[in-house]
């Protein structure tokens, strides 16, 4: 790690990712892009999250500072420093609220840093705006969402969603985009009145939005050509000014290993499938999704009955599938219970389809690899991302739920049918073609003269007075 005391890198950026993998990873990619432009980068985190960041950036000069995060908050087990360690996502508001305990240490640290030209901090760390203002640092907010989901969320009146609908599945039109129809089920309303009742949270949807509105800008992990209409809408109708600098996952290639013995066993397995001329379906639901044992069993049966080759990554806490499943499918399926390099898997030539929860990073990584998606959203912005994937940019199909709702239970028969459609059907062929076209556009966006590269250069120029 490099020192930040020298004068050779006078322009200095502070990054403060939220403590979850999906929010941290894209900002680590952004760190690389800033370092490539010879800016000094300091990343704030907590002791428990530091090893992941250090390991990811061990070949760079990024400077990492950790702040103690010892909360003693009702409803939150002690020692938890990352949302993927939360026993339940219902504890998320308590967790986000507790991050504010870091504010005094954060400000003491800022005082001792060389001049900071700008700060990029996560939307859930709303209080960092106050700290940035005290030190006259322009703050960019980062949510890791796409324009489509942000624009639709802003455009739909929350009161209408909460009180104006007969059922969770009643369709309503989104006024500025009349072709888009959404339901209450498309929205995660985790910080509802009910959940907040009786608790004193500074962290609320209102505080987060107010802090965003008063920030210098918002950074989108997207690229103009992917969603021009929504990028234009945001910059015409919403504040703060948005900057599209993605896909950030293209900032560095996955750490590919050429030596066969250095490759993880699942990559060796993919190599074998490629040698046999077989295609593989990748199945993964990100770092947060909670999948019930009953749903896991249906997934297993659906994959078994579909007869396709598959690589299924499951979280350790979900390790029980169904008796004898792995033995029965061992010739054409592999189940992985470890942290994988997802980009390495998606980029593998054998992978031709992805069952995804549609976390925005996963969607972008799939697009960049030219792999079509079978969309299975579960929470947060995922239902809207899934709509975007299937209805707007048409790089995916949707999994069939029992009750037809966007987040319902999926029976194995519905899964089997859609897996076959994605991997072998006509619709699968269409979305695969579209994915490959978008993969090319994504690459161009970050190349010399590309839209995202120019936007990041402009941002640096504006905040640092620096020509990159
Ligand atoms: N990821 C990974 N290996 C894993 C699980 C996840 O590399 O075993 C990465 C994935 O590539 C993505 C991020 O973790 O960059 C997950 O972000 P996403 O927005 O897709 O979903 P979330 O975990 O936030 O729900």
Short description:
This protein is α/β, with parallel strands linked by helices. Helices cover 40% and strands 14% of the residues.
Report on the structure:
The chain is α/β, with parallel strands linked by helices. The chain is 40% helix and 14% strand. It has helices at 21-36, 50-56, 92-98, 103-111, 128-134, 147-155, 158-163, 193-196, 205-213, 228-237, 265-275, 293-306, 325-328, 342-347, 360-369, 382-392, 412-424, 426-446, 451-464, and strands at 12-16, 40-45, 63-66, 118-122, 139-142, 172-174, 177-182, 217-220, 242-244, 280-284, 309-313, 333-336, 351-356, 373-375, 396-398. It has a seven-stranded parallel beta sheet with strand order 3-2-1-4-5-8-9. Strands 12-11-10-13-14-15 form a six-stranded parallel beta sheet, with helices on both faces. A two-stranded antiparallel sheet has the order 6-7. Helix 15 (360-369) packs across helix 18 (426-446) and helix 17 packs across helix 18. The protein is globular and about 60 Å long. It starts with 11 loop residues before the first strand and ends with a helix.
Characteristics:
468 residues; alpha/beta; seven-stranded parallel sheet; six-stranded parallel sheet; 19 helices; 15 strands; 40% helix; disordered N terminus; binds uridine-5'-diphosphate; Glycosyltransferase; UDP_glucos_trans; EC 2.4.1.-; UDP_glycos_trans_CS
What's the tally of helices?
19
Provide the β-strand percentage band: 5-15%
The ligands bound in this entry are: uridine-5'-diphosphate
Unreliable sequence segments:
1-7
Q: Please give the alpha-carbon distance between the first and last residues.
A: 23 Å
Roughly how many Å is the radius of gyration?
22 Å
Sheet bearing the most strands, described? 7 strands, parallel
**Coarse shape:** globular
Keywords: Glycosyltransferase, Transferase
Family: Belongs to the UDP-glycosyltransferase family.
Protein name: Glycosyltransferase
GO molecular function, one term: UDP-glucosyltransferase activity
């Amino acid at each position: 790690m490099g020192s930040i005391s020298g004068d050779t890198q006078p322009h200095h950026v502070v990054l403060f990712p939220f403590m979850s993998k999906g929010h941290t990873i894209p900002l680590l990619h952004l760190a690389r892009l800033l370092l490539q432009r010879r800016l000094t980068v300091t990343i704030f985190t907590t002791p428990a999250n530091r090893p992941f960041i250090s390991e990811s950036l061990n070949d760079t000069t990024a400077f990492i500072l950790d702040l103690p995060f010892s909360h003693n908050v009702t409803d939150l087990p002690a020692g938890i420093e990352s949302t993927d360690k939360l026993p339940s996502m219902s504890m998320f508001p308590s967790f986000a609220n507790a991050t504010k305990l870091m504010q005094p240490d954060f400000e003491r640290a800022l005082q001792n840093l060389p001049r900071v030209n700008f700060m990029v901090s996560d939307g859930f760390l709303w209080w960092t705006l106050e700290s940035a203002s005290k030190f006259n640092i322009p703050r960019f907010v980062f949510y890791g969402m796409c324009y489509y989901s942000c624009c639709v969320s802003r455009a739909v009146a929350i009161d209408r969603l909460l009180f104006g609908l007969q059922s969770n599945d009643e369709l309503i039109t989104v006024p500025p985009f009349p072709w888009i129809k959404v339901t209450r089920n498309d929205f995660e309303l985790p910080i509802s009145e009910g959940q907040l009742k009786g608790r004193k949270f500074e962290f609320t949807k209102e505080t987060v939005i107010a802090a965003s509105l008063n920030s210098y800008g918002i950074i989108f992990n997207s690229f103009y050509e992917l969603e021009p209409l929504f990028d234009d809408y945001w910059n015409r109708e919403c504040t703060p000014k948005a900057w599209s600098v993605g896909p950030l996952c293209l900032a560095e290639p996955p750490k590919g290993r050429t030596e066969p013995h250095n490759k993880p066993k699942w990559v060796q397995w993919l190599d074998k499938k490629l040698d046999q001329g077989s295609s593989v379906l990748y199945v993964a639901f990100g770092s947060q999704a909670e999948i019930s044992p009953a749903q896991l069993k249906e997934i297993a049966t659906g994959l078994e009955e579909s007869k396709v080759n598959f690589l299924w990554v499951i979280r350790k806490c979900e390790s029980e599938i169904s008796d004898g499943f792995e033995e029965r499918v061992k010739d054409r399926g592999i189940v992985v219970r470890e942290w994988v390099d997802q980009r390495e898997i998606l980029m593998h030539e054998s992978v031709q389809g992805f069952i995804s929860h549609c976390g925005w990073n996963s969607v972008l990584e799939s697009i960049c690899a030219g792999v079509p998606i079978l969309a299975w959203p579960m929470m947060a912005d995922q239902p809207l991302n899934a709509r975007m994937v299937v209805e707007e940019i048409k790089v995916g199909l949707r999994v069939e739920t029992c009750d037809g709702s966007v987040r319902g239970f999926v029976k194995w028969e519905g899964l089997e049918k859609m897996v076959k459609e994605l991997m072998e059907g006509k619709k699968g062929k269409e979305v695969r073609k579209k994915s490959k076209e978008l993969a090319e556009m994504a690459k161009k966006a970050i190349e010399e003269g590309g839209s995202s590269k120019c936007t990041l250069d402009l941002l640096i120029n504006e905040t640092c007075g620096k020509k990159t």
